[in-house]
Write a structure and sequence with these properties.
Keywords: Oxidoreductase. The protein has about 325 residues and is an alpha/beta fold. The protein is built from eleven helices and twelve strands. It folds into two domains: about 1-100 and about 240-335, Isopropylmalate Dehydrogenase; about 105-240, Isopropylmalate Dehydrogenase (3-Layer(aba) Sandwich), CATH 3.40.718. It has helices at about 15-25, 40-45, 55-60, 80-90, 145-165, 180-195, 205-215, 225-240, 280-290, 295-310, 325-335, and strands spanning about 5-10, 30-35, 65, 95-100, 115-120, 130, 140, 170-175, 200-205, 220-225, 250, 255-260. A ten-stranded mixed sheet has the order 2-1-3-12-11-4-5-10-8-9, with helices on both faces. A two-stranded antiparallel ribbon has the order 6-7. The longest helix is centred in the middle third of the chain and has 18 residues, at about 145-165.
């Protein structure tokens, strides 16, 4: 069966790592076809807008997108395009695996293998009620948690555990202080957990979670939490396995899914050909799982691992002297 994928090449190093990723996917001969769509600074230059209607329509039609990083200004400028994409398609589940790979900077010899599932559409990122007082002295933002949003993200976590053979879900919250918002999330999470007696469920306050992750990450299997906490924890987990260059992400909704490298656009190294394509390649593996091709997803992951073991063509961030496309070609050769 042929699948058409909306491809967003992104900003900075985005086009380079996308070319590398598509090279590997083409080598796998999966019958995929690609439909290019623009977003970010490239779209602004070409179309005068950051997220053209044609891009939204392409995602809506194909229901699957593979996306390179998009620039988001810090402290001002335009709002996050990533957040807008999640809002447009109600991509409520952000799925971030953190897995140890050979010859990386991971500090844990026993290996890390966990997944953070972050609610993706509400919480502190709803972009409502954000304002700064006229005197510039006070800033206000709304945080909104709903029963519906909490139920579906926690249910997604337990279903993923059941379907993938994972045994434990840790519900992360701050209900001791944020008794309304985090309190509602925890209350709903407990109700959902009771429906899955085959999966162990435990609860952990977010600050303790961060401490436990850096001390004993092996105690975690799946973490489920709200938007802001999940954003922070998932990057912490990436640090446990060697950094964001090995961190893929999936944004899942009922009608569409977007798979991405979660690192930034790295304009300082754009055009130099030294960007590590692994995060986007691992996101492509998540995409293959979503497309009901688990054997091919595993085939891709094993080729990445074998290439890292051999240090064949790997990029400077992983201690090698290769470049982006050399790395991709080495992976493709092991398929």
């Amino acid at each position: 069966m042929t699948h058409t994928i909306t491809v967003i090449r992104g900003d900075g190093i985005g086009p380079e790592i996308m070319d590398a990723t598509l090279h590997v996917l083409d080598a796998m001969q999966l019958g995929l076809s690609y439909e290019d769509a623009d977003a970010g600074l490239m779209a602004l230059e070409k179309h005068g807008e950051l997220l053209p209607a044609a891009t939204l329509e392409s995602i809506r039609r194909n229901r699957i997108a593979l996306k390179s990083p998009l620039t988001t200004p810090v402290g001002g400028g335009f709002s996050s395009i990533n957040v807008e994409l999640r809002r447009q398609f109600d991509l409520y589940a952000n799925v971030r695996p953190a897995t140890s790979f050979p010859n990386t900077r991971s500090r844990f010899a026993d290996g890390v293998n966990l997944i953070t599932i972050r609610e993706n559409t509400e919480g502190s990122y709803i972009s409502e009620g954000q304002e700064v007082s006229a005197d510039g002295e006070t800033a206000v933002s709304i945080t909104r948690i709903t029963r519906k949003g909490s139920d579906r993200i926690v249910r997604y976590a337990f279903e993923l555990a059941r379907n993938t053979g994972r045994k434990k879900v840790t519900i992360v919250h701050k209900a001791n202080i944020l008794k309304s918002t985090s309190g509602l999330f925890l209350k709903v999470a407990r109700e959902v957990a009771a429906e899955y007696p085959d999966i162990e469920a435990n609860e952990m306050i977010v600050d303790n979670t961060c401490m436990q992750l850096v001390m004993r990450p092996e105690q975690f299997d799946i973490i489920v939490t709200t938007n802001l906490f999940g954003d922070i924890i998932s990057d912490l987990c990436a640090g446990l396995v060697g950094g964001l260059g090995l961190a893929p992400g999936a944004n899942i909704g009922a009608d569409a899914a977007i798979f991405e490298a979660v690192h930034g656009s790295a304009p300082d190294i754009a055009g130099k050909g030294v960007a590590n394509p692994c995060a986007l390649l691992l996101a492509a593996a998540q995409m293959l799982d979503h497309l009901a091709m688990p054997e091919q997803a595993e085939r891709l992951r094993k080729a990445i691992v074998a290439t890292l073991e051999a240090k064949d063509g790997v990029t400077p961030d992983l201690g090698g002297t290769g470049n982006t496309m050399a790395f991709a070609k080495a992976i493709a050769a092991r398929l």
